[in-house]
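Q: I'm writing a short explainer about Alpha/beta hydrolase for a general audience and would like to include a description of its predicted shape. Could you first generate the structure from this sequence?
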Amino acid sequence: MKYDKDNQQYGLMFGKSKLFFIKTGAAGSIYEYKNKYLELASKIQNERGYAVAVSANPVGSPLNLQEELEKISTYLIDIKEIILIGISRGRLLVLQQGYLNTRVSRILAINWHKTKKGLINFSGAKVQVVFGQYDPSVDYSDLIERLEVLETDGSSQIISKADHNFKGKLDTFKKLVMQFVLED
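A: Of course. Here's the predicted structure. Afterward I'll give you a sentence or two in plain language.
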Protein backbone atom coordinates (compact mmCIF):
# COMPACT_ATOMS: atom_id res chain seq x y z
CA MET A 1 0.00 0.00 0.00
CA LYS A 2 1.34 3.40 -0.92
CA TYR A 3 0.94 6.10 1.71
CA ASP A 4 1.77 9.70 2.38
CA LYS A 5 5.23 9.30 3.91
CA ASP A 6 5.13 12.70 5.63
CA ASN A 7 2.21 12.13 7.94
CA GLN A 8 0.64 8.84 6.83
CA GLN A 9 -2.70 10.53 6.30
CA TYR A 10 -3.69 8.24 3.42
CA GLY A 11 -3.03 4.65 2.42
CA LEU A 12 -3.84 3.85 -1.19
CA MET A 13 -4.10 0.61 -3.15
CA PHE A 14 -4.59 0.95 -6.88
CA GLY A 15 -7.38 -0.93 -8.63
CA LYS A 16 -10.06 -0.78 -11.29
CA SER A 17 -13.34 1.11 -11.78
CA LYS A 18 -14.43 1.46 -8.13
CA LEU A 19 -12.91 3.18 -5.12
CA PHE A 20 -13.63 1.99 -1.61
CA PHE A 21 -12.88 4.95 0.65
CA ILE A 22 -12.47 4.06 4.34
CA LYS A 23 -12.52 7.00 6.79
CA THR A 24 -11.29 6.16 10.28
CA GLY A 25 -12.64 7.39 13.60
CA ALA A 26 -11.39 10.38 15.60
CA ALA A 27 -7.61 10.28 16.09
CA GLY A 28 -7.61 7.12 13.96
CA SER A 29 -4.62 6.18 11.85
CA ILE A 30 -4.49 4.14 8.66
CA TYR A 31 -3.22 1.27 10.81
CA GLU A 32 -5.67 1.42 13.75
CA TYR A 33 -6.35 -1.44 16.16
CA LYS A 34 -4.55 -4.57 14.91
CA ASN A 35 -4.17 -3.07 11.41
CA LYS A 36 -7.87 -3.69 10.77
CA TYR A 37 -8.18 -1.06 8.03
CA LEU A 38 -5.09 -2.15 6.14
CA GLU A 39 -6.19 -5.78 6.34
CA LEU A 40 -9.61 -4.81 4.98
CA ALA A 41 -8.04 -2.77 2.20
CA SER A 42 -5.83 -5.69 1.18
CA LYS A 43 -8.76 -8.09 1.24
CA ILE A 44 -10.96 -5.81 -0.90
CA GLN A 45 -8.15 -5.22 -3.40
CA ASN A 46 -7.10 -8.90 -3.56
CA GLU A 47 -10.63 -10.33 -3.85
CA ARG A 48 -12.21 -7.70 -6.12
CA GLY A 49 -9.38 -5.75 -7.68
CA TYR A 50 -10.90 -2.42 -6.67
CA ALA A 51 -8.95 0.63 -5.56
CA VAL A 52 -8.99 1.26 -1.82
CA ALA A 53 -8.04 4.36 0.15
CA VAL A 54 -7.79 4.47 3.93
CA SER A 55 -7.90 7.98 5.32
CA ALA A 56 -6.65 8.78 8.82
CA ASN A 57 -8.56 11.19 11.03
CA PRO A 58 -5.99 13.11 13.11
CA VAL A 59 -7.14 15.21 16.05
CA GLY A 60 -8.11 18.67 14.83
CA SER A 61 -8.15 17.71 11.17
CA PRO A 62 -10.76 19.41 8.97
CA LEU A 63 -13.68 17.31 7.83
CA ASN A 64 -13.86 17.89 4.08
CA LEU A 65 -14.75 14.75 2.17
CA GLN A 66 -14.77 16.43 -1.24
CA GLU A 67 -11.23 17.70 -0.74
CA GLU A 68 -10.05 14.25 0.33
CA LEU A 69 -11.68 12.53 -2.64
CA GLU A 70 -10.15 15.12 -5.00
CA LYS A 71 -6.66 14.46 -3.59
CA ILE A 72 -7.07 10.72 -4.03
CA SER A 73 -8.54 11.18 -7.53
CA THR A 74 -5.25 12.66 -8.71
CA TYR A 75 -3.85 9.11 -8.40
CA LEU A 76 -6.99 7.28 -9.55
CA ILE A 77 -8.22 8.87 -12.75
CA ASP A 78 -10.35 5.97 -14.02
CA ILE A 79 -12.65 5.62 -11.01
CA LYS A 80 -16.32 5.68 -12.02
CA GLU A 81 -17.92 4.79 -8.68
CA ILE A 82 -17.09 5.49 -5.03
CA ILE A 83 -18.25 3.43 -2.06
CA LEU A 84 -17.79 5.10 1.32
CA ILE A 85 -17.10 3.30 4.59
CA GLY A 86 -16.97 5.51 7.68
CA ILE A 87 -16.27 4.52 11.25
CA SER A 88 -17.31 6.72 14.21
CA ARG A 89 -16.17 10.29 13.38
CA GLY A 90 -15.47 9.01 9.86
CA ARG A 91 -19.09 7.86 9.52
CA LEU A 92 -20.18 11.33 10.50
CA LEU A 93 -18.17 12.72 7.60
CA VAL A 94 -19.38 10.23 4.98
CA LEU A 95 -23.03 10.63 5.97
CA GLN A 96 -22.95 14.41 6.21
CA GLN A 97 -21.07 14.97 2.96
CA GLY A 98 -21.28 11.77 0.88
CA TYR A 99 -24.41 12.87 -0.94
CA LEU A 100 -22.51 15.85 -2.39
CA ASN A 101 -20.44 13.63 -4.70
CA THR A 102 -22.42 12.13 -7.57
CA ARG A 103 -20.01 9.19 -7.93
CA VAL A 104 -20.87 7.90 -4.44
CA SER A 105 -23.20 4.92 -4.87
CA ARG A 106 -23.22 3.29 -1.43
CA ILE A 107 -22.38 4.15 2.17
CA LEU A 108 -21.57 1.87 5.10
CA ALA A 109 -21.67 3.88 8.34
CA ILE A 110 -20.45 2.26 11.53
CA ASN A 111 -21.53 3.62 14.95
CA TRP A 112 -23.78 6.37 13.56
CA HIS A 113 -25.66 9.32 15.02
CA LYS A 114 -26.17 13.05 14.44
CA THR A 115 -26.59 13.11 10.69
CA LYS A 116 -30.16 12.86 9.50
CA LYS A 117 -29.63 15.45 6.72
CA GLY A 118 -27.01 13.35 4.95
CA LEU A 119 -29.20 10.26 5.03
CA ILE A 120 -32.22 12.10 3.67
CA ASN A 121 -30.25 13.74 0.85
CA PHE A 122 -28.28 10.69 -0.26
CA SER A 123 -29.59 9.36 -3.57
CA GLY A 124 -27.20 6.46 -4.14
CA ALA A 125 -28.22 2.82 -4.09
CA LYS A 126 -27.80 1.93 -0.42
CA VAL A 127 -26.97 3.17 3.07
CA GLN A 128 -26.23 0.59 5.74
CA VAL A 129 -25.61 1.70 9.32
CA VAL A 130 -23.93 -0.63 11.82
CA PHE A 131 -23.69 -0.30 15.59
CA GLY A 132 -21.76 -2.14 18.25
CA GLN A 133 -24.14 -3.29 21.00
CA TYR A 134 -22.10 -1.43 23.63
CA ASP A 135 -21.44 1.71 21.60
CA PRO A 136 -23.16 4.82 23.01
CA SER A 137 -24.78 5.53 19.63
CA VAL A 138 -26.70 2.22 19.57
CA ASP A 139 -29.76 4.01 20.95
CA TYR A 140 -30.15 5.68 17.54
CA SER A 141 -30.40 2.41 15.60
CA ASP A 142 -34.17 2.42 15.26
CA LEU A 143 -34.15 5.89 13.70
CA ILE A 144 -32.85 4.54 10.38
CA GLU A 145 -35.98 2.52 9.64
CA ARG A 146 -38.17 5.42 10.81
CA LEU A 147 -36.74 7.79 8.18
CA GLU A 148 -39.50 7.17 5.66
CA VAL A 149 -38.31 10.00 3.39
CA LEU A 150 -35.18 8.10 2.35
CA GLU A 151 -34.76 7.92 -1.42
CA THR A 152 -32.44 4.95 -1.08
CA ASP A 153 -32.34 1.53 0.52
CA GLY A 154 -31.53 2.16 4.21
CA SER A 155 -30.99 -0.37 6.97
CA SER A 156 -29.34 -0.73 10.36
CA GLN A 157 -27.74 -3.62 12.18
CA ILE A 158 -26.47 -4.14 15.74
CA ILE A 159 -23.43 -6.35 16.32
CA SER A 160 -23.91 -8.31 19.51
CA LYS A 161 -21.31 -7.86 22.29
CA ALA A 162 -19.31 -5.33 20.25
CA ASP A 163 -17.99 -2.08 21.68
CA HIS A 164 -17.16 1.11 19.80
CA ASN A 165 -13.89 -0.33 18.43
CA PHE A 166 -15.20 -3.88 17.90
CA LYS A 167 -12.53 -5.24 20.26
CA GLY A 168 -12.98 -8.99 20.48
CA LYS A 169 -15.27 -8.78 17.42
CA LEU A 170 -12.78 -7.83 14.70
CA ASP A 171 -13.59 -10.92 12.66
CA THR A 172 -17.27 -9.95 12.70
CA PHE A 173 -16.33 -6.37 11.76
CA LYS A 174 -14.22 -7.51 8.80
CA LYS A 175 -16.85 -10.00 7.66
CA LEU A 176 -19.54 -7.32 7.74
CA VAL A 177 -17.46 -4.91 5.66
CA MET A 178 -16.63 -7.64 3.14
CA GLN A 179 -20.33 -8.57 2.81
CA PHE A 180 -21.01 -4.92 1.99
CA VAL A 181 -18.14 -4.90 -0.54
CA LEU A 182 -19.36 -8.05 -2.26
CA GLU A 183 -22.96 -6.81 -2.67
CA ASP A 184 -22.33 -5.17 -6.01
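A: For your explainer, you could say: The chain is about 30% helix and 25% strand.
Q: Perfect, that's easy to follow.
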